[in-house]
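Kindly go through one protein, given below as sequence and tokens. The question is how this chain folds according to its tokens.

***
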Amino acid sequence: MNWQDKAHLRIPGPTPIPLRIQQAMSKPMIGHRGQAASRLLQECATSLRALFGTTHTPLILTGSGTSALEAAVTNAVQPGDEAIVVVTGAFGDRFAKIVERYGIALHRLDVPWGTSCSPEQLATFVQNHPRAKAVFLTYCETSTAVLNPIAELAKAVHDHSDALVIVDGVSCLGAVPCHMDDWQVDIMVTGSQKVLMLPPGLAMVAVSERAWKRIEQQTQPRFYLDLTAYKRSMEQHSAPYTPAVSLLYGLKEALLMLEEEGWENVFARHQRLMRMTRAGLRALGLPLLTSDDDASPTVTAIDGRQTAWDTESLRKHMSEMNVTIAGGQQHLKGQIARIGHMGYCDELDVLTVLGVLEMACFKMGVPVELGTGVKAAQEVILHV
């Protein structure tokens, strides 16, 4: 029997939505210019400070994570400027495409997919491009399951340049520490459909004082994504354009859930889920795309290029058992499989995914011993 309401979505976003958040989003609609909406927006923005690690008030946009990436580009740099984009996968490449689309001179630091950027690499590159006005980084590269060392990379930039440091934190913020102010990150963005356990539709942006000074000097035309408009409205506990009110109800509840768990516990849970997943896959003899040092706590990638079997067949067999994992992107399409373990995810979810993965491998004729991956993950939980 195929019970769709019991489907297990284990892709790196969108992620499953807890019932508690679904119920919050089902509240009756309110007027978006009324006092209730103002309080809701203010409460969400205040709670978001802990997520970003900032004393500044984050901005909330109605749009996907990509809208926040575009806003970061159009507000911080303009045609004729030079910018550096560090590309460790498909989403670094997306940053580069946005930069190019707006007529900004792009200096692209390409890092082999599956590895992180080192501070030494970036420092050298920044010194070679002293006119760059901004450096764009990706905290978690979803397409390759790589976590870049943002604190160290930001320092490498500031040691050699006055360029703004702009970071895509869409697929990891909330699952990993973020100390934006301490790290001197100038713009950090994230989205609703990852660790925050919401549907797609909200983007959050936090901006440093240094970045605001640059933004206010920019002449690049922009309208819906003009961050100064959001700042002015947020100072009045409002939004410049119609906000996604139901999603704001969900965001308030999601942040409350994470606060109740405790941020350090949330970070530890994601680390544990990552270790379980990697231990289970290794026990099954499945190659991983990233090293332990570069691994993200929100997504793990199987490197199908090192196997005699097809990762798309693996995904197909797993989907027939109501477990959905992701494939690769761009040149890794059909070459890797990615397992998301972020947000509304716990140890039992990982055990389920590994158990189904074992059965899928068995059906494909992959030589695995049933229970091996699950056992290895259980040992992580039990500290055996």
Notes: The chain has two domains: 19-259, 262-382. Residues 263-283 form the longest helix (21 residues). Residues 262-382 form a domain with the Aspartate Aminotransferase, domain 1 fold (CATH 3.90.1150.10). The first strand starts at residue 8 and ends at 9.
